[in-house]
Amino acid sequence: LLICKADGEALHERLASDTFSDAIKLIAASDAKSSEAWRQKKQRSYHSLRHSYATNLAQWLKENGQPRRLLNERLGHTNDATTLIYVHFNALIHGDVDEQNETEQEIRKANRRANVDHE
Fold first, then answer.
1. Per-residue pLDDT tens for 40-75?
2. Helix/strand/coil (H/E/C) assignment for every residue in the chain
3. Which of 9, 16, 1, 18 is nearest to 75 (CA)?
4. Residue 87 CA from chain centroid, whole number
5. CB 3.0 to 4.6 Å from 35: which of 28, 54, 65, 79, for a disulfide?
6. Which residue, 20, 16, 22, is CA-closest to 2?
């Protein structure tokens, strides 16, 4: 589990989202400009933090020579194409054209495999 109790036991499924919502309310209440900015932002959610985590982890794995499968394991994806989206997006952010091309091909292959498995 990405977020769990100290003993490794699962937290209530809403805890992270509720905590994130509470934090947003506190930030918004602290400053009128921040408050308005948060209200206008449509994609503010705990799931957005998960996307940020995944993209940052993709970069960390690359910088530290770690295998991409660790990203897949951390995120719990069953389809490799889903995980590769974060690797591809990270390559876009950093202007790594070679990795963009490589991951794009891998995503297509993984999607084809997934489609064959479902047929």
1. 665 556 677 788 888 889 999 999 999 988 999 888
2. CCCECCCCCECCCCHHHHHHHHHHHHHHHHCHHHHHHHHHCCCCCHHHHHHHHHHHHHHHHHHCCCCCHHHHHHHCCCCHHHHHHHHHHHHHHCCCHHHHHHHHHHHHHHHHHHHHHHC
3. 1
4. 10
5. 28
6. 16
